[in-house]
């Protein structure tokens, strides 16, 4: 694992080259359809047959220490040598913590080595140029690291990279994975061709905003309400049931909210996973590691907590 820390020494040109290479890989995968025996991509929508093993990592927010611990615990190089083992990250790699660029560079190194079984979803912090908000530090971090060239790197390299990230992942018969939450869909016709509609979220600001910014809430008498975040919505259990029923999945796995490593909403049908510790000392961090047999045998979604590991 000694090479883990080499990303701290990357020059501006090395950083740019790596990020742009991964952007090309992402864009190629979005166009090619099937990229492995179990995985396919259609634009912003990822779909997998149930993998032999699945690891899911929540928000990292520049926390290189937590990332290092997770990669050590799963022995990522051996784990990812098997094509049917999948690693999915739920977004928000930047801001809050001290090592946003280093987290991104290391994840891009993994993607470069294992392009067909490591996947990064987009978080709201990777869409500041689409949905601005106040607590965005990444541009300043780049300028501190690379001086005046940091702004050019952000505009010319990082923005296209963020746009290349997938928006949603479906694991057939098991789960929908997003960063924020489920869009409020009131027209049932949406689900007749939902995969196509989710494949081009960049042309639908409303859909992308909700995927990145929505949060589950325990409502009575309503399905949703505007979010106090100023972007996105709070969605209730009826929205969750609607999505699970129409996609034939058991569980929503998402990030976006600090918690004690994980939490459940909507009769345990929505699990929030959070993996950042250093910027959030009052909370805990964790990741999910589950096998195909365990996914198939899962009857009570609450039982998935047995496969959540603290960092």
Low-confidence stretches: none
- CATH architecture label: 4-Layer Sandwich
**What is the 3D shape?**
globular
Q: Which assembly state applies to the chains in this document?
A: single chain
| Radius of gyration of CA atoms, rounded to a whole number | 18 Å
Q: Strand order within the widest sheet?
A: 1-2-6-7-11-13-12
Structural class: alpha/beta
- What composes the largest sheet? 7 strands, mixed
The number of distinct helices, counting runs of at least 4 residues, comes to 10
CATH class division: Alpha Beta
- Helical fraction equals 25-40%
Mean pLDDT: 95
User: What is the H level of CATH, i.e. the homologous superfamily?
Assistant: Metallo-dependent phosphatases
EC number: 3.1.3.16
GO cellular component, one term: cytoplasm
InterPro entries: Calcineurin-like_PHP, Metallo-depent_PP-like, PP1_catalytic_subunit, Ser/Thr-sp_prot-phosphatase
Cofactor: Mn(2+)
């Amino acid at each position: 694992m000694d090479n883990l820390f080499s990303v701290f020494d990357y020059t501006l040109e090395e950083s740019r080259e790596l990020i742009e290479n991964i952007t090309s890989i992402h864009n190629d995968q979005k166009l090619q359809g099937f990229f492995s025996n179990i995985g396919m991509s259609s634009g912003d929508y990822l779909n997998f047959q149930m993998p032999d093993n699945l690891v899911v990592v929540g928000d990292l927010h520049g926390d290189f220490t937590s990332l290092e611990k997770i990669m050590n615990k799963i022995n990522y190089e051996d784990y990812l040598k098997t094509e049917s083992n999948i690693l999915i990250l739920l977004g928000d790699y930047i801001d809050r913590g001290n090592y946003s660029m280093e987290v991104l560079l290391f994840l891009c190194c993994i993607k470069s080595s294992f392009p067909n079984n490591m996947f990064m979803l987009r978080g709201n912090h990777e869409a500041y140029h689409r949905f601005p908000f106040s607590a965005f530090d990444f541009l300043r971090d780049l300028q501190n690291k690379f001086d005046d060239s940091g702004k050019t790197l952000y505009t010319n390299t990082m923005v296209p990279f963020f746009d290349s990230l997938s928006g949603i992942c479906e694991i057939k018969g098991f789960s929908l994975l997003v960063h924020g939450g489920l869009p409020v869909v009131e027209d049932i016709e949406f689900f007749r061709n939902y995969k196509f509609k989710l494949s081009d979220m960049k042309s639908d600001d409303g859909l992308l905003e909700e995927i990145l910014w929505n949060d589950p809430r325990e409502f009575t008498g309503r399905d949703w309400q505007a979010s106090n975040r100023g972007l996105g919505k709070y969605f209730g259990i009826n929205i969750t049931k609607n999505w699970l029923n129409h996609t034939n999945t058991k569980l929503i796995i998402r990030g976006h909210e600090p918690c004690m490593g994980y939490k459940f909403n909507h009769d345990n049908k929505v699990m929030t996973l959070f993996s950042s510790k250093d910027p959030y000392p009052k909370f805990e961090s964790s990741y999910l590691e589950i096998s195909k047999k365990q996914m198939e045998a899962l009857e009570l979604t609450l039982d998935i907590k047995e496969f959540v590991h603290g960092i």
